[in-house]
Input
Amino acid sequence: SRQDLLSNQLVLIGNASATPELSHPRQLAEPRFKQLVLGDPAAVPAGIYAKRYLEGLKLESGSVWQAVQGRVVPMPDVRAALVQVEQRSDAVGFVYKTDAALSKKVRVLFEVPENASAPIRYPMAKIAGSPAFGQAVVDQLHAHLRGNEAKAVFERYGFRLIEQKGS
Output
């Protein structure tokens, strides 16, 4: 049986030493934001989420995505996007909240509301008939991952434990 265990969130970050003021991601359309770093929106899930989110933010003419797509700096993965923002004072970027939490060199400018983006989920599954482990061991692991101790660890790294339906 498969169920979602953890969720994550998309955040907009800036270099901690030179973070520009930003009250809403619509401001990314302004020319002062010269580069927007994110995972390649053609292939990297975080980049795909960011693109979809920016496409949904409307301006008087078109979307924020249409205004910024020429300034997008696509990266091969989220960690590469994080490193670019760490190293460049003129860049802002989208990464996962869990990645931003790993760096003291970036500051979160905006948290994308969970209802404004496709859900970012990490599932787990019990696989029936696994010969390597008995069902009791699988059930113990499942219970541990849903317990308070694991929840505290997940939250320390920026994840949110998804409550089981009916619990």
The chain has six helices and eight strands. Strands lie at 2-8, 10-15, 35-39, 72-75, 91-96, 106-111, 120-125, 160-161. The helical segments are 45-56, 64-68, 78-87, 97-100, 135-145, 148-156. The chain has a mean pLDDT of 91.
